[in-house]
Design brief:
The chain is an alpha+beta fold and about 240 residues long. It folds into 2 domains: about 100 residues; about 110 residues, Immunoglobulin-like, CATH 2.60.40.150. It is about 45% helix and about 30% strand. Strands 3, 4, 5, 7 and 8 form a 5-stranded antiparallel β-sheet that branches. A 3-stranded antiparallel β-sheet has the order 1-2-6, with helices on one face. A hairpin with a 2-residue loop joins strand 7 and strand 8. It is rod-shaped and about 165 Å long.
């Protein structure tokens, strides 16, 4: 036999009590569901509001970014236009400077044509200009020769240019054909009526130190018409 004592509990029979409990539990469940739904709805609504706000802010940021990109593109375009305009101005200035240099040379040439001097046969050796070539040790030269006669006619002449200087401490004379690759022989042959321009580039050896240039000119076949002029080695840096 069991040692545990058993106690019987007698509850009164209440038929409506069970229904009340069920109704209460259902009501509580409905209330909790409604409360949870309302609370969730509020949270959802707040989240949607925040999401819409973020969407608006993102749209604003995109608009601002698009505006900034457009401003940057406009600035880059303006900079390119300014660079092109500046380059055009530079080219115009360079062209004007070149034209001015040509005008100065022509003025000098006409001045030489009008000046007196020369010999009986009318041959005249004009000015000689020497200018450095940028970034090179070469020298650009330009010599003007002319004739003066009452009745001018085309003549053929011979022109000889000799560059004198020092090389290794010794006096050296070098012909134009040795320093200017465009001429293979000397003297130079030329034909003109009023004037003639001899120009080119002198490639000076590093060990050679020029001091002067001697120019000789005479009519072809007429040695008695020879004229000569010596120029100091002066470089025009302008």
């Amino acid at each position: 036999m069991s040692n545990h004592k058993q106690q019987l509990v007698v509850r009164p029979h209440r038929p409506g009590h069970r229904k009340v409990e069920i109704i209460l539990w259902v009501s509580l469940s409905v209330f909790l569901f409604a409360a949870g739904f309302m609370l969730g709805f509020r949270f959802f609504d707040a989240a949607m509001v925040e999401k819409r706000q973020q969407k608006l802010e993102l749209s604003g940021l995109r608009d601002n970014s698009a505006d900034m990109e457009q401003q940057l593109a406009n600035a880059e375009l303006t900079a390119r236009i300014d660079r092109v305009a500046l380059e055009q101005v530079r080219q115009v200035m360079t062209s004007l400077q070149a034209e001015l240099a040509v005008d100065k040379e022509e003025l000098s040439l006409y001045r030489n044509l009008l000046q007196g001097g020369g010999t009986e046969n009318g041959l005249l050796i004009g000015e000689l200009t020497l200018k450095p070539i940028l970034e090179l040790q070469d020298i650009a030269y330009r010599l003007v020769v002319q004739q003066k006669e009452n009745k001018l006619k085309r003549i053929k002449v011979r022109i000889k240019m000799t560059i004198k200087g020092l090389s290794g401490g010794k006096a050296v004379a070098m012909g134009l054909e040795s320093l200017d690759s465009q001429f293979e022989t000397s003297p130079i042959q030329a034909e003109f009526k009023y004037f003639h321009i001899v120009e080119g580039v002198l490639t000076i050896p590093s060990e050679f130190k020029p001091q002067s240039i001697t120019v000789e000119m005479w009519k072809k076949g007429v040695n008695s018409s020879r004229v000569e002029r010596e120029f100091d080695w002066r470089i025009d840096e302008s």
